[in-house]
Design a protein that fits this description.
Elements (H helix, E strand, L loop, with lengths): L1 E4 L4 H13 L6 E4 L10 H6 L7 E3 L5 E3 L1 H9 L12 H29 L13 H22 L12 H15 L9 H11 L2 H5 L1
Parallel strand pairs: 1-2
Antiparallel strand pairs: 1-3, 3-4
């Protein structure tokens, strides 16, 4: 398998965490796509992922899978023992619900703030910016932190008692917040405790 990525960016890190959790990192060849030079917009890369985003998983038969959730689903079921995406119908539904909430209300919100209300990746990459939209998403991301803190006041992880891809997504969102130097309010003690707990996992260090 190959993973096309830009190392250090939050979405590729999500897949690296999933790989480490499943013990699959050694089975993957990582191929760097230089986003800053526009390599994700070349015809060759767009043939693999028309959205022009990383990461992309390429299987040995040439099949390409984009989107972190889809890639994680595939990896999680390779050995028939899903641990990151839920094992029962109810677990799967809750994991996917919480993953989506963490993605929209935290990771995507802070990502939109980064791309629209800061210099982002530079004028050659940021072809359109709307600062007002970026600032609105900053508020949305901060509200997302408060929501996740409320969830974590009732349970150990975002989807229940087990670490799942919902936690991976939220951790990526918190990492982006840290990169943007956004302060986590001191009152969000449950979120802070969860973050420390997740940060201590071996898969985080491996990613």
């Amino acid at each position: 398998m190959k993973v096309y990525e830009y190392k250090g960016f939050v979405n590729p890190v999500r897949v690296r965490i999933a790989l480490a959790e499943k013990g699959l990192t050694s089975r993957v060849e990582f191929v760097q796509v230089d986003l800053l030079s526009g390599a994700h917009r070349t015809p060759e890369f767009l043939a693999k992922n028309p959205s022009g985003t990383v990461p992309v998983l390429e299987l040995d038969d040439g099949t390409t899978i984009a989107e972190c959730t889809a890639i994680t689903e595939y990896l999680d079921h390779l050995d028939g023992q899903p641990t990151l995406t839920g094992r029962t119908a109810k677990e799967r539904a809750i994991v996917h619900m919480m993953q989506r909430r963490a993605e929209v209300e935290l990771l995507d919100a802070f990502g939109t703030y980064f791309h629209h209300a800061t210099p982002g990746l530079g004028e050659k990459i940021e072809l359109y910016q709307n600062r007002e939209w970026g600032e609105r998403n900053l508020k949305r991301g901060m509200a997302g932190m408060h929501y996740l803190d409320k969830v974590l006041s009732q349970q150990t992880y975002l989807a229940g008692d087990h670490f799942t891809m919902a936690d991976i997504t939220a951790f990526a969102g918190m990492s982006l917040a840290d990169f943007l130097k956004l302060e986590v309010p001191e009152t969000l003690t449950h979120l802070k405790a969860w973050h420390a707990r997740v940060a201590a996992r071996p898969s985080i260090a491996a990613a």
